[in-house]
TrEMBL record:
It is an enzyme of class 5 (isomerase). Its cofactor is Mg(2+). InterPro entries: DNA_helicase_pif1-like_DEAD. It comes from Araneus ventricosus. One of its GO terms (biological process) is telomere maintenance. This is ATP-dependent DNA helicase. Its EC number is 5.6.2.3. It catalyses: ATP + H2O = ADP + phosphate + H(+). Residues 1-88 form the DNA helicase Pif1-like DEAD-box helicase domain. Belongs to the helicase family. GO terms for molecular function: 5'-3' DNA helicase activity; ATP binding; ATP hydrolysis activity. Pfam families: PIF1. Keywords: ATP-binding, DNA damage, DNA recombination, DNA repair, Helicase, Hydrolase, Nucleotide-binding. It comes from the Eukaryota.
Length: 100
């Protein structure tokens, strides 16, 4: 995950280039990835300071519309029930049961 300062810098740049003061210069930006995997790097910071660098704590968060994926297409087309169970375990608590 990127530091919120990177998104705020992109916002300022797009506003300047497009001469538009709306968020991100009034263009649609699509961010993809697994945001729960990696936290922004914040060396020698307290827990509170670490939480403050997330995009959610940015002034940009009011203009963000979030969409979630509802179907794992790789599992859907695989058709193997054990693949669905494996995907459920990974998104559950991250632990894989011994029978897998």
């Amino acid at each position: 995950m990127s530091h919120k300062a990177a998104f705020e810098a992109l916002d300022v740049m797009l506003k300047d280039i497009r001469h538009n003061n709306n968020i991100m210069g009034d263009i649609t930006i699509m961010l993809t990835g697994v945001f729960r995997q990696a936290l922004p790097v914040t060396p020698r910071r307290t827990r509170a300071e670490e939480m403050h660098v997330f995009l959610k704590s940015s002034n940009l968060s009011n203009g963000i519309q979030r969409f979630g994926l509802t179907t794992n297409m790789r599992v859907y087309f695989n058709g193997d029930p054990s693949a669905q169970q494996f995907a459920d375990n990974l998104l559950g608590n991250g632990a894989i049961s011994p029978d897998n």
